[in-house]
Amino acid sequence: xxxxxxxxxxxxxxxxxxxxxxxxxxxxxxxxxxxxxxxxxxxxxxxxxxxxxxxxxxxxxxxxxxxxxxxxxxxxxxxxxxxxxxxxxxxxxxxxxxxxxxxxxxxxxxxxxxxxxxxxxxxxxxxxxxxxxxxxxxxxxxxxxxxxxxxxxxxxxxxxxxxxxxxxxxxxxxxxxxxxxxxxxxxxxxxxxxxxxxxxxxxxxxxxxxxxxxxxxxxxxxxxxxxxxxxxxxxxxxxxxxxxxxxxxxxxxxxxxxxxxxxxxxxxxxxxxxxxxxxxxxxxxxxxxxxxxxxxxxxxxxxxxxxxxxxxxxxxxxxxxxxxxxxxxxxxxxxxxxxxxxxxxxxxxxxxxxxxxxxxxxxxxxxxxxxxxxxxxxxxxxxxxxxxxxxxxxxxxxxxxxxxxxxxxxxxxxxxxxxxxxxxxxxxxxxxxxxxxxxxxxxxxxx
Length: 447
Ligand code: S3P
Description:
Number of helices: 12
Shape: globular
Distance between the termini: 31 Å
Radius of gyration: 21 Å
Number of domains: 2
Bound molecules: shikimate-3-phosphate
Strand order of the largest sheet: 2-15-17-16
Structural class: alpha+beta
CATH class of the largest domain: Alpha Beta
Strand content: 25-35%
């Protein structure tokens, strides 16, 4: 943790102007390292997110036998070992803050004949793992967990694992992906039934690496994903698009800060990820999508966001999976809209890097927003564009090891009379290295 990340002030000032590029997509970066490590030969990945979460995945894949290095041109080279050939790690796998690394790797290892121990930071050690240990247990893996099914935990994989057909009880791309990754080294067909569609990067990339994977979509939207096991993956050259979940911060900052006009280039526009942008436009945001194209099997575009008068909205719960990580910053936008924004069906936000419903409700209230916290959502009466301001000058918000809470309140601070202080910005390094420098650049461009 760097000293400079402590007690940072975010306050109103110049509008945000100019063009920025956000770091690579976190979900796609994790998957690119994992699947490359399971292909025999060298894969090359450019645009990889070099944040702490993805670096935790890289370190784990090295510990499991892959050779991984970054060349000076920023390209990551992965020499994989092949499906079924990961090796016994010598020490515990330290997952840091990263739920995605943990859950996907548990899937990978469930069908390998080895034992592994997973440890993580205080935030990760509170998060539920039963959602993956249950289906992976059905495939034959064994788990010894800490109380509540949490980390630290030790697992033993099984070879050959047992193929399962599993209906997801929670809408979770991590659970879906863990089962599919376990299925790679499992004889027969592993099937995941997904009643509510979640991000489909695993499906796209597994196909791209040569796995036999089919997706059948039923009339009610349920997706049935079938993977043929004992797969052989072929090395690939991959380009990771910018992370729409990171683009969300400069976009919302521009929408709520008077005089702003920001372009974010190279943003992943996979429809399973773009719920926030759809919703903001429905609220009246001046948000334009230009240069739509395809990069490495994923849709990509540039976004132009200008300060806008937003109107509150009733958020349909079925949009949640396509913007699940964007709710914290969405709540900030809602607090600046005119009229009321109501959300529901967001129980999952309570088990992210923090309890995001509770922290956003508390923090927004401290900066003067009118918020009601329900069990599964927030109801926010917006201020119609008037800057928020708390009763106590410049409040300090605790980020609680949650990068997206830190970044959401940093954005809020730019449009809050008197500003606010974030106690610790260091968690931002998990997903968005250079976040505060980007905000500074956008303001300098306007000065
Ligand atoms: C992710 C899935 C989502 C998301 C997380 C990344 C992934 O989690 O919140 O940041 O890469 O599969 P859930 O599967 O728990 O919804």
